[in-house]
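for the recovery benchmark. tokens below, seq after
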């Protein structure tokens, strides 16, 4: 069998699918990158701000509660409170005001606002009696503000204000951010390359499938898809190749059958034409010859009718759907033997029939009749004068066994396999003389296969033949 492999069309065909896959991949990659770049950084930023808030608010309220206990708010008392809390060790600006916002203490000597009234939003909020924290992250630093009121009973005696700039945390966050970006760009590059390779290979494989389907569509069932691997696409390719192989086989068988059938129909038609031409063209033909020719024409027509009936039977075996019928095979055997009784008598053949046990099978009566009738008829046809045909039907465990044994002409060993082929005859002349078409045994075989059974032949040339059909017995309730 010629295996043709075509690589043309590849990469040209399923562009749409590949584009869609690329689009979905790019979309997903984009979403993943955005999440990976934004989410961890935002979480870390949130943690820095939360820690700063906790620290600053706890320090600012600690200082305010120490100052609340001082008899007066003076730079000295404020300095010593800051010293007690060790707040001067941190890089913060600390401002303490009186209730009017007048700065009593400023830790910054550079831009000191000591002695001035300040209107910082945080100080105003604190003088309103509330703790406050505020933070901005920009230009490589966290700017953090916190303020708390100094309360004595219900009286606000002043406010404590902290400001600090956290460059270290901002730097750390920045480096984490740029590292994540670096890693994600590297991963992006790698995955784009991997995706392009995968997409290209997927495209090639889909194209290979498409080429195969197109070839089959145009009637080339010799074409086989070549695909490596063991994934689903390879399995589809394998199934496709198997399907093509089966179609190719049945196509060959169909062509052979049509050729054989036409040949078989042509022979009797040619005889009819020849005989009728002889009658019409020969003016001096005698009445006896005309009668003889008309008899031959009648025989050829009978033959044509038999061929067409058997072709219909083959078609039925091919296309009859499995039907839920239970057939009592003993009845069918008795009926077929009854019809063939006269034929056996005419041929001077002794026909013996014996049926034993429950011989129900799951089949249509039509199919069983074809099997039984053809085998008994052949055993009579291909027998000799004073010969014998022994038909037995019995139940053997889960099977029904039907045997037709004859003492006829037998079949040569090398022909035995071929007798089930359509239109095959061992002795063409004898078969033709007995009205044979060469289709009977092929019909028997098709029905037997269809019913899940098996047919075997044992024959000795010149002595006789035994055909044995084994069918699965019907074991359920009868009358389904
Ligand atoms: P046909 O219509 O020619 O009988 P079949 O398909 O029934 O066609 O049989 C195929 C050939 O097998 C016959 O032509 C005949 O040569 C041979 N054959 C079938 N049955 C027997 C038999 N019982 N004994 C000897 N030859 C047989």
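predicted aa per position
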């Amino acid at each position: 069998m010629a295996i043709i492999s075509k690589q043309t069309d590849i990469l040209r065909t399923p562009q749409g699918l590949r584009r869609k896959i690329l689009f979905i991949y790019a979309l997903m990659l984009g979403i993943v990158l955005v999440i990976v770049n934004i989410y961890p950084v935002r979480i870390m930023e949130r943690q820095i701000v939360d820690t700063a808030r906790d620290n600053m608010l706890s320090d600012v309220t600690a200082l305010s509660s120490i100052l609340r206990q001082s008899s007066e708010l003076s730079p000295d008392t404020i300095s010593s409170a800051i010293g007690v809390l060790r707040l001067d060790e941190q890089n913060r600006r600390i401002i303490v005001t009186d209730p009017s916002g007048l700065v009593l203490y400023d830790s910054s000597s550079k831009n000191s606002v000591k002695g001035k009234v300040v209107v910082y939003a945080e100080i105003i909020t604190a003088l309103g009696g509330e703790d406050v924290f505020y933070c901005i992250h920009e230009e490589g630093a966290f700017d953090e503000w916190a303020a708390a009121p100094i309360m004595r009973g219900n009286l606000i005696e002043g406010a404590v204000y902290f400001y600090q700039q956290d460059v270290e945390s901002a730097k750390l966050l920045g480096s984490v951010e740029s590292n994540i970006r670096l890693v994600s760009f590297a991963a992006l590059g790698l995955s784009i390359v991997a995706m392009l390779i995968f997409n290209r290979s997927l495209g090639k494989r889909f194209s290979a499938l498409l080429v195969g389907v197109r070839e089959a569509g145009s009637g080339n069932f010799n074409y086989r898809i070549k695909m490596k691997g063991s994934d689903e696409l390879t399995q589809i390719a394998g199934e496709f190749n198997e399907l093509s192989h089966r179609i190719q086989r049945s196509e060959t068988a169909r062509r052979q059958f049509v050729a054989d059938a036409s040949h078989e129909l042509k022979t009797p038609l040619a005889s009819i034409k020849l005989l009728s031409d002889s009658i019409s063209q020969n003016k001096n033909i005698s009445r006896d010859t005309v009668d003889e020719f008309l008899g031959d024409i009648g025989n050829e027509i009978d033959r044509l009718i038999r061929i067409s009936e058997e072709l219909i039977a083959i078609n039925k075996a091919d296309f009859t759907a499995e039907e839920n019928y239970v057939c009592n095979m003993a009845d069918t055997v008795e009926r077929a033997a009854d019809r063939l009784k006269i034929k056996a008598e005419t041929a001077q053949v002794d026909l013996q029939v014996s049926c034993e046990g429950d011989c129900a099978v799951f089949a249509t009566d039509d199919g069983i009749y074809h099997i039984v009738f053809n085998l008994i008829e052949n055993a009579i046809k291909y027998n000799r004068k004073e010969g014998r045909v022994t038909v037995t039907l019995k139940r053997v465990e889960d099977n029904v066994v039907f045997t037709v044994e004859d003492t006829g002409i037998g079949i040569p060993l090398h022909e035995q396999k071929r007798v089930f082929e359509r239109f095959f005859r061992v002795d063409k002349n004898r078969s033709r003389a007995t009205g044979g078409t060469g289709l009977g045994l092929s019909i028997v075989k098709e029905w037997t296969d269809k019913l899940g059974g098996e047919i075997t032949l044992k024959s000795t040339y010149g002595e006789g033949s035994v055909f044995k059909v084994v069918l699965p017995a019907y074991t359920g309730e009868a009358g389904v």
